[in-house]
């Protein structure tokens, strides 16, 4: 959902990211297996993530992660 680690940290710090439906604002938050990572349900959050997804290389996504670009959701 972010092209770089600093970009991911900023998305989290600015409260654009939810894990299992709860806002996460700690960049060092550790996800567990089967956690669902989504964006807030507002246009600004979705636009930021959409721009990042469009500019990133899908081949660099780790094999243990899946991403649904239409629903802005990662597993």
UniProtKB/TrEMBL annotation:
* A biological-process GO annotation: ribosomal small subunit biogenesis
Record domain RNA-binding S4: where: 1-53
Xref: SUPFAM superfamilies: Alpha-L RNA-binding motif
UniProtKB keywords: Ribonucleoprotein, Ribosomal protein, RNA-binding, rRNA-binding
Query: Which domain of life does the UniProt lineage start with?
Result: Eukaryota
The protein's matches in InterPro entries, at most eight in alphabetical order, are given as: Ribosomal_uS4, S4_RNA-bd, S4_RNA-bd_sf
Q: How does it assemble?
A: Part of the 30S ribosomal subunit. Contacts protein S5. The interaction surface between S4 and S5 is involved in control of translational fidelity.
Report the family membership.
Belongs to the universal ribosomal protein uS4 family.
Q: This chain belongs to which protein, by name?
A: Small ribosomal subunit protein uS4c
Originating species: Oryza meyeriana var. granulata
